[in-house]
Design a protein that fits this description.
The protein has about 200 residues and is mainly α. The protein is about 80% helix and about 0% strand. The chain has one domain. The chain is built from seven helices and no strands. The model has no long low-confidence stretch (mean pLDDT about 90).
């Protein structure tokens, strides 16, 4: 008998990074659907305080998944673009992008962990400022890419940068417009409902 030669498939890094990119998008969108659904129970004044509090805990936990996915989308997307050869960045810059993303990831976790404390509020402001800077930077990179300058070598990638910047902007506006709702909800859960507090929450 002759030995049978077994070939073990080797996944190229491109396919692994592409898979990660797709999964991040799927869990980002799927998680936000769960957050949206949970919020309907949190806003429902007909429910008991205990039920609304439970819904809020579920909402806040599920909401962390889209937040983490958003952060990781940036370095994974850059890595995928490097694999495709459509961005011109050095290995040092690529490593720097991952380091920044991991620091941002830790910041997002810390904002959630220290929520409702003075430290948490300060970290929240740092995170908000960073998102504004990042969104503006993405728009700048996209415009430079459309002009044939900068480090983006494909117009469709410049368009994706604009979409990503817009999504970050939407998140910023949700935080700004919805800022009074969480303190109002905490007041309802602690001391009971009033029409004024319910109006803020809605």
């Amino acid at each position: 008998m002759y030995p049978v030669e077994c070939q073990i498939p080797v996944f190229e890094s491109y396919f692994l990074v592409k898979l990660a990119h797709i999964l991040l998008f799927v869990y980002w969108l799927g998680g936000d659907i769960g957050v949206f659904h949970s919020s309907s129970y949190v806003r429902n004044a007909a429910l008991t305080r205990e039920a609304r509090g439970t819904a809020l805990k579920i909402l806040l936990w599920v909401d962390m998944i889209p937040r983490y996915c958003l952060v990781l989308m940036l370095p994974v997307g850059y890595t995928l673009a490097m694999e495709l050869g459509i961005v011109s960045v050095s290995s040092t810059v690529a490593v720097g992008i991952w380091v920044i993303a991991l620091i941002w990831l830790a910041l997002v976790y810390a904002v959630h962990h220290f929520q409702g404390t003075p430290l948490g509020q300060r970290l929240r402001i740092v995170d908000l400022v960073w998102r504004i800077v990042l969104a503006l930077g993405l728009v700048w990179d996209a415009v430079q890419g459309f002009r044939g300058m900068g480090h983006i070598d494909a117009p469709w990638l410049s368009a994706k940068f604009l979409v990503f910047a817009f999504l970050i902007f939407c998140g910023i506006m949700i935080r700004v417009v919805g800022a009074p709702s969480l303190p109002a909800l905490r007041e309802v859960l602690a001391n009971g409902s009033t029409p004024e507090l319910e109006a803020i929450i809605k």
